[in-house]
Amino acid sequence: MNWVIDHIPELLSAAVDHLQLALLPVVVGLVLSLPLGWVANRWTVARAILVPVSGLLYTIPSLALFVMMPLLLGTKILDPINVQAALTIYTVALLVRSIADALAAVPDSVVQAASAMGYRTVGRFFAVELPLAIPVLVAGVRVAAVSNISLVAVGQIIGVGGLGYFLLHGAQSSPPNYQEIIAGIALIVLLALVVDGLLALAGRALTPWTRQQRGPVGRGRSVVSR
Amino acid sequence: MSVFDQVGDWLTNPDHWKTTLGIAGIPQRLGEHLQYTGLAVLIAAVIAIPLGAYIGHTGRGGTVVVGVVNSFRALPELGLLILLVLAMGLTLALEAVTIALVLLAVPVLLAGTYSGVRNVDRAAVDAARGMGMSEWEILLKVELPNALPLILGAVRSATLQVIATASIAAAVSLGGLGRFVIDGNALREYDQMAAGAVLIAGLAIVVELLLTGLQWLVVSPGLRKKTSRRTRARTAIPTSR
């Protein structure tokens, strides 16, 4: 533990960097994917383009996407924006489909009832359809946040990796500094679990109406939707 | 000359397509990448699919599976690779990387198989039991064919995750297409780095398309049209990479 105790300030500041690298893309990605998901749900043609394209983008391995970003954006190789832009792409790719599917799952009768009560398209989206989509949306955001936190470490290979620094640096020290590597891994896992838990709580707080309906069926579904 | 031209030149340079003087070319690195990936996915499938089918059929241990899978998603692949390679030594680096890749693929396959079998229409299972099928027959003739879309989906995401992680294996001194990215970075040769990235992305996309095609071919026609708007939402969340 000596190494860890001596390096607490460095670990903490790297953890802050790490969170920023991982979560800013989640926020930006969410903002971008809401309209895209709406469009994908609204028009079949848009869905037929957006869903496969995001599937393919999501397929590209992180190391490759990080390295290709300067090609697409004209940025420098070591610019942190490369990692953040790549993680934003993953978040959008993941959420567009979730949002489109969640909106599609809102029962027609509910949408029609809202229209009958006088909601126009935009108002109905924010007051009725979006709130009903929250459980699926939160599940998607949790996956995006957790996998982004784990993927930031890969960015260390091209020099931008938050806590990933300790993984490579510890491995390249001679003899290898196991304390440093394990501290890095443990902090990454801890950040992921804490963020995941907080998002789950936020999701529950935002959807008070779902709590009464938890039967055995509901539990079975939560397994599928992981 | 633009960056795109540089990358194009690097990729079309015949010297980069053959192994000369111990410097591996693209075919050899691709072969290594496929070897790591294939071996790991195969081992993981042999472990995870029977186990997932058993847990899904009996329903015992389902919560454990979900917990294990969720906690593995948080584990950084790079850290796992580094720890295993250091612990087993560089002479066993290939074995260490294979273990790491298997560890990453097993939870994905386990979750897919488990939820696939678990979510087969209970009425169909009851009907099969009522017709006098044994538990084995129910599993092999009813549950697994019905679960096939989810199982193959899991094979696809596991394979892609393994391809992605195998490209990081170069950071712990192994081969594979990631070698071009790591070496290019070390030598400050962006054309080699970017060409490596393009190759990795190309490999992933080709494998994704092939497996999607396979999934479409293999799955029973009776299950294909089921993706109505309502059922889609159930499978809306893709597994992590």
Short description:
The complex is a heterodimer of chains A (226) and B (241). Chain A has 226 residues and is mostly helical.
Tell me how many strands of chain B there are. Answer: 0
Basic shape of chain B: elongated
Total domain count of chain B = 1
Largest interchain contact: A-B, 61 and 59 residues
**Annotated CATH homologous superfamily of chain A:** MetI-like
* Helical content of chain A (DSSP H or I, runs of 4+): over 70%
In CATH, the architecture of chain A is Orthogonal Bundle
Which spans of chain A have pLDDT < 50 for at least 5 consecutive residues?
218-226
What is the oligomeric state here? heterodimer
Class by alpha and beta content of chain A = mainly alpha
Q: Which sequence of SSEs, written as H and E, runs from N to C of chain A? A: HHHHHHHHHH
What is the C-level CATH assignment of chain A? Mainly Alpha
Question: Which architecture of chain B does the CATH hierarchy give at level 2?
Answer: Orthogonal Bundle
- Compute the number of helices of chain A: 10
CATH class of chain B: Mainly Alpha
> Mind telling me the CATH superfamily name of chain B?
MetI-like
Transmembrane segments (chain B): 36-55, 80-110, 162-182, 194-219
GO biological process, one term (chain B): glycine betaine transport
Organism (chain B): Actinokineospora terrae
Pfam families (chain B): BPD_transp_1
Can you walk me through this structure?
The complex is a heterodimer of chains A (226) and B (241). By secondary structure, chain A is an all-alpha fold. Chain A has ten helices and no strands. Chain A is elongated, with a radius of gyration of 20 Å. Chain B has 241 residues and is mainly alpha-helical. Chain B starts with a helix and ends in a 9-residue tail after the last helix. Chain B has one domain (3-235): MetI-like fold (Orthogonal Bundle). Chain B is built from eleven helices and no strands. Chains A and B meet through helix 3, helix 4, helix 5, helix 7 and helix 8 of A and helix 1, helix 3, helix 4, helix 5 and helix 7 of B.
